[in-house]
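Possible regression after last week's pipeline update?

I re-ran a chain I had predicted before the update to compare outputs. Posting the input and the new output here so someone can diff against the archived version. Not blocking, just want to make sure nothing changed silently.
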Amino acid sequence: MARALLLALLGAAAGLAAAQAGPPRNWADREIAAQYWADGSGKATLDGARAAFEGGLGQRASPAQLMPLGGGAAVWYRLQLPVVDEPARAVFSITFPGTDSVDLFRSDGAGGWRVQRSGDVLPVNEWPVQDLYPTFAFTLQPGEVHPTYMRVLHTHPIRVNWVLWDARSFNAASKAWHLGLGAYIGFVVLVMLLSLFNAYSWRDPIHLYFTVHVVLVGLSILSLAGLAGEYLWPNNAWWNDKAPLVLPAASFGWAALFVRELVAERGARVTSWSLLASAAVSFALAAAFLALGREPFYRVPSLYFVPVAVVVLAVLVAYAWRRPEPGLWVLAGISVLVLSGLLPMMRTLGLLPVSFMTEYGVQLGGALEIPLVLVGIYLRSGARRDNRQRMGALARTDPLTGVSNHRVLVERLRHLLAPGRRSLFEGAVMQVHVANLEAIREQYGREAAEAALVRAAECVTREAKVGDTVAREEGGDLVLVLEGQVSRGQATECGRNLIARGLKFSGKLPPRVTLNLRVAGVMSPLPEANAAVLMGMLGRVILEIGRDPMGRALRFIGSGDEAPRRASYRGVIISGGGPP
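New output (post-update):
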């Protein structure tokens, strides 16, 4: 949030600075008189083009018209730029980042011509103006009457749009675009780091898949916007020409693999193989673009994109139906990316006119897709983490009583009885036995007996403090490990509290039924024995309590004179449960 606010403030500051720099010339909105002539051979020189225009072969140029480019053909333009009263710095841009070659011819005033060359046939650092798309800078002179000529080459038909700026307007617009794209780069890097952290902390590979997806989508958008050519590979004209096709194809192929990992289920072979096939087609097309260029395939993306998109979206719809919380977020993100990717393809095929959305829809779609999908996989990973925690808890929890199970108890006792640790332990180990459990089972049934164990676990748990352990022993008895500086008197009081709580009536038990609890304990230092031997010793004490003629219900190993007499509770101890 703070980062978004900072970027918003910077954007506002940049806009304010541009507004205060002075009123720009409104050339960007002024129509330029232009004619075009199609050179099918692509070999005409400037003199040949001038002769064609003077011979009446020029036609009125319209920005909405699809130019007959491709196959080596070129299109020449004759532009009549605005007349100025004083010398003015101007910037002329072709607003299509992937244009192969643009040559601008301007009169030098002495019968010759100045030539500026730009486009993907040259490294960006050799362009007259290093910018997102082919751009030229020059000075308009008062009384200038000579037309400006422009030659455009491209591998397939495109609409050629241009904007004439004064230098001040161009600088302000360029800064705004670079600021926005720079913010997008920062956002992509932040998402990458977050995804890598999530992959490590949650041990979920889906975040690694998403990291690669974000990198490919980000590079695709930057290459389509022209920023990658300007800053990432300004010296490589070959890759700058290939990247706007290769990277989106690879990105879409990886998106299919990402979705496959997202929705992976046992037995879903049709879904898995469909997504693998979609990814294979996308990667094969990327390799073809890389090896053969885009001229033989410029219509192919439109042909393969739709069926692959249908497969991916159909899988995500099914996934969202089963798991709507994460699925709908991912479906929304991928849908935005797919729909935005259709816009420039439909523009290339002449199905849509040039507009802001056909020019910049992919960039907007990519910027919206990443946070939407990020939310979806975050929810998915959170659910998986909770499931793992529940499974882990089930593996260490007694399903009936909710306390720790026998495995946890043994691990804890082994730790306490380990050589070198026995002498460090301070506290007590107490075993709690429900003496009238079988009587309750016989009189009231299994459910009542299970309720009695749950009630006994509640009584023991209430005596536990932070750091103590409450577990259910394999034979069904409960064990309380008191840790810390616990005196014999405190342990005895704890045992008496347990017995007293058991004697209280509870709504979880049948009417007038209470628990007859027997407690056996051992104080620190613990005897030199293993966990099984220690539990056996406490079990024998429990049996001795049952045969105690004095009726005592609490006894510690090595002493029998501090326990309460069961006789003092005889009036209620067997109520509803028979004799112990």
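Follow-up from reviewer: compared with the archived run. The domain at 171-394 is CATH 1.20.1070 (Rhopdopsin 7-helix transmembrane proteins). Marking as no regression found.
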